[in-house]
Fold these 3 entries.
Entry 1:
Amino acid sequence: MMLVKRIFLSHVPSVGFYSSSAPILLKTGDILRQVRIFSDTDVTEYSKLSYDSNPLHFDSECARNAGFEDRLVPGMLVSSLFPRIIASQFPGAVYVSQTLHFKSPVYIGEEIIGEVQATSIRQMKEKYIAKFATKCFKKGGFLVIDGEAMAILPTLSTEEVQSTI
């Protein structure tokens, strides 16, 4: 299973540090990140749930014959970092929409950094509609997924969350 190595909130342009006693309010420009390494077990379990049996995810020879270095992590599994990041910081958030552009393959065992950056926030009654730029990077800052998400947040106060899956 996967262990989230680090979860943190940073403020552009500098990293912000905070204590659990003083909540941080999300504002435009803030970036939330999580790091994940997708394992063979993750890919197998995802396949069972999604019925995605593409041999590129299970057969190294097939993946190499298709021009890849090795077996691929399904793009939708990698992109699942985005709603996870938002929900871990804003329990009760409703994920409304997501666009995705797959830029480069992700291989099993690679460290991936998922990032959501608040690009606009507006209040709607007692909740907030937040739009996020969504990106995943691998080692060296290499972009693998790019997109946009929208979520309804119950609050702008972020939570410091430590979790394991």
Entry 2:
Amino acid sequence: MAAYEKRRAAAAPAAGSGLAEPARVAAGGLGSETEFLLRAGVTAMVREALLKVLEARPEEPVSFLADYFERLVLGSPAAAGEASAELPGPPQRLARALWYVRLAHHSHRTAFDSNAGAAYEVLGAGGRRRKAGVDGRLYSELLRRICQRGPAPAEAAAALLGRVRCRDHEAVPLPVFRYGVLACSVLLEFAAKADALFGVLGGGSGAADGRVCQAVLRALEEALGAGHGPRPGRFLEAGSRLGPDRLALAMDQALRERQRGSAMSREEFLRRATALFVARVKPVE
């Protein structure tokens, strides 16, 4: 204990150093620990990190905090909240923007929209040789990278990008940027749900009865057609109405048909299911 107090006394700032000395707690050694955390800036740093977690609402808070402190140590301006700071080049801006848009699930609308706004600022940061703003080239590249990580077929991703993309030289406004990011995020989840549905139809194999798959796709198309609202997320809500009873009825009707249907592969089912989704995404004008 005496050795500890000696080290603490040696670490104390000299008089007139300009450092403000926090109030000490009289009882025990709590005052010394609190003083150390305040003087080192740890208290403010942790408070800022927790505020970032509450603001972003990431799906994996622990991983978010680990990444946040890593960026802070490396001197990342994004970790310090300076999203609009100048970055070395497009690859770095794209990587950071991608990090932002993946923080929160799109169902957390406030957090997702806030993160999309931060990504927009990062991607459109100005510099010595470029004007501030997001152009169609960077916007399209970000959407392409979002679609790369997930089960969505390449054909569906390309078709969706064709509906929400802007010309390379065009300035992309924030509402269009947010809409495109949301559409790509919903496509990935829609494809994942379709993949899980095929796993049920195929019993874990790589193929399923074509009659059943066709019946389920027709039921899915009807459910998607019943969706309402301006956001792509409404298609997930509509698809959720395709409950077990409705699926069982469609499958039973298909199996009652006398003709035997050919098998449908997982890839074909995903391609057709995601095509239904993409066809209902409103194109960017």
Entry 3:
Amino acid sequence: MVINSVFDTTQQDSDLESPYNYVPTEWISVLFVVLYSISTAIHMGQALKYKLWWMIPTATFAGFMEVFGWSARLWSSQSPELLIPYEMQLVGTILAPTPLVAAIFVILGRIISQLGTQFSRLTPNMFFCVFDAICLSIQAVGGALAAQAVNENQSPTLGGNIMLGGIAAQLFAISVYIGLAAEFFLRRKYNAPFRQQVIQCEKGHRSMSKNVQIMICGMSFCTFCIFVRSVYRTAELANGWSGPIIANESYFNWLDGCFITVAIYTLNVIHPGIYLKWDDNDHTSSPDDDEFF
């Protein structure tokens, strides 16, 4: 009851003009700006410390975009009638989780490289990251068109539909990713390699260390959080710009803000620089398997 009442803000200032159909709550916006700023700073420090440069354009950039989006919502809480902060938060919060998705794609590729590429239907490569970049571009175009339409007092339906297509495509990619990851772990568990010829050159597959198990759990939880958020944003945009979902601030605070916050902090706590350290003495696959990561 207490938790529900904390984020139940949909009825505040309902008589004021606002493109949100509500006025963003100031303290909630401040909270998320602070939380994302802390996580982003930590991700940058971790990327530099462990020399995982790919974490900068993925998890770190996702944090920057979230700070940008929630700062715009904070601005809107002070000036709810302005369109510029609404357009900024629209683009920022829609695009921000996409680089985070790329991070978990890369993490799975590193896990596959360490545990045995012969059990994976796809060899570790940048396929999913490229597809994720395409989804990001589609969402960016849609967000820009929607923002421009709002600024010109026109219908943002076209831009919204393009954004919906980008998010739906990303949701599909995440679903395929989950399926391929599950298949990989099942094949490995039951020693059913997808590529039989690789086994001839190997004495067996690598045992799964405790650290890798923790990384898999963290990656899985992060994926779950992003998946829930993607389902919400897909339903939100499909419901229309004046529908009950997009007009409910509590839905946005919980299903977007909270879930992505938990996801990005999960990768702070269970960081690949700590839990996916390469061990040459215990690795059985080809050293070239990790060349893309």
